[in-house]
Structures are given as structure tokens and as C-alpha cells.
Amino acid sequence: MRLKTLSLALLPLAIAAAAPAFAEDVTADLQISAQVLPGCELTVAGSTQLELGALYQGQGVQSPSGVAARCNTGTAYTIAAGDGLGRGLNPEFAGFRTLTGDRFQLPYRLERGLGVGLEWGQGTDVFAGIGDGEWQYHDYSVSFYAVNQAPNGVYADTVEVTLTY
């Protein structure tokens, strides 16, 4: 009887081991897509703490490292310079940007490049490029006028620079 009980107890294990395993694979596709949108970054190095002697003759003062744009490959861009806060304040230089001080308005021009005399502003007077994913640098210079008429002091202006893509 003991043998019969042991045999009956092992019977379910024997049946389970002898039964075929039915395993199926179920698959589904994972779809991935992305759209790369135009994008750009802008850095601007200002020209600050410049020291001008009274005999300065208006030659361009080079910017420390210009302006730089980094845009996705194929993205066309322009970089424009605004008028500043004091454009036209000096009546003798009505169309010029102006650094303001306590007792005088010091006229100046922003120029594209170094000493080439091309205005940097808006419209057609902008830097332009097509992005390649790397930083692209554009040099600018500042030319000051009537420095010999300016009293000693500190003069300043703020110009908004806009990258459009």
C-alpha cells in the first residue's frame, strides 16, 4: 500500500514533466521618429573698459571676440545690431549711435569686420550665415568720433543684438 500511495503522489509530477510546454512569442514594433527643428545660440562679447586718448582719430577698435552663432546644419541666420539707447543724441553726428556721459555724448559706429568700414546694424547691414552645427564667429569693431571734444569721464551705451533664423 505504501508503494501505491507513493506512486499516486508522484503521478502529477510525472504528468507535468511529460506534457509539452507551450510557449509563444508575441512581438510588436516600437516606432521612433524625431523632427529636428531649426535652432540657434548667440554669444556677444562687449567692448568695455576701452581707453581713448584725446588725440584718437576714429580708427576702429577691435572687439574682444566678436559675436558668435551656433545653428543647426542648414539653418540660415542673420545677426543685427540695434540702434542703442543714445542714437542721434549728439547733434553734430545725428545718424550715429552715441555713448552718453555726464556732460557729453560721444558718437560712434559699429562696423562689421575689422577696419573695413561696413556699418553693422539692421536690414542689409547684418552678419549672415548658414549653420553647420559649430560656432561661427563674426568680428566687429567700434569707431569713435569727436573724442577730442569729450570731457574726461566714462561713457556707455547698450545695443541689443538679435539673431534671427
Automatic annotation (TrEMBL):
Q: Which UniProt keywords apply?
A: Signal
Spore coat protein U/FanG domain span = 27-162
- Alphabetical list of Pfam families matching this protein: SCPU (PF05229)
Signal peptide feature range: 1-23
Asked whether the keyword Heme is assigned, the reply is no
PANTHER family tied to this protein: EXPORTED PROTEIN (PTHR37089:SF3), PROTEIN U-RELATED (PTHR37089)
What is the protein's given name? Answer: Spore coat U domain-containing protein
Q: Which organism is it from?
A: Luteimonas fraxinea
